[in-house]
Structure formats: C-alpha cells, structure tokens
Amino acid sequence: MISVIIPLYNRENTIVDSIHSVLNQKRTNGKLFNIELIVVDDCSNDRSVGSVAKFENQTSPL
Predict the structure, then answer these.
(1) Where do the Glycosyltransferase 2-like domain residues begin and end (predicted)?
(2) For the chain, what is the domain count?
(3) What are the strands, taking DSSP E only, across 1-62?
C-alpha cells in the first residue's frame, strides 16, 4: 500500500485533478496501486472540502 497525503487550503479549482491523478497511478504492468489517500484541509474558506467530499461515495474511506 502507498499512502499519499495532500495538504489542502483553498484549492477547489485543482484538488479534483490532484485526487484523480493520485488514484489513477498504475504499476508498470498496468495494474492500479493500492493507495491510501489522506486529504487534510486547513480551514479552507472556498469549496475545497465539498470538492473532496464528492469522492466519498466513489472510493473506500477517503
């Protein structure tokens, strides 16, 4: 398992692409890695948290 931590502060315009990039990483044999993704928000005052929350039902605990 690979753990990735993304610190987040007011990045609603880029966080979705960042999450997709992490979750779509593949091994050289084409299989997806087993990835644990942790997003840590530092009191963003934009819609960053809402953007991340959209992934909750699509993945195992995010």
Answers:
(1) 3-57
(2) 1
(3) 2-8, 35-41
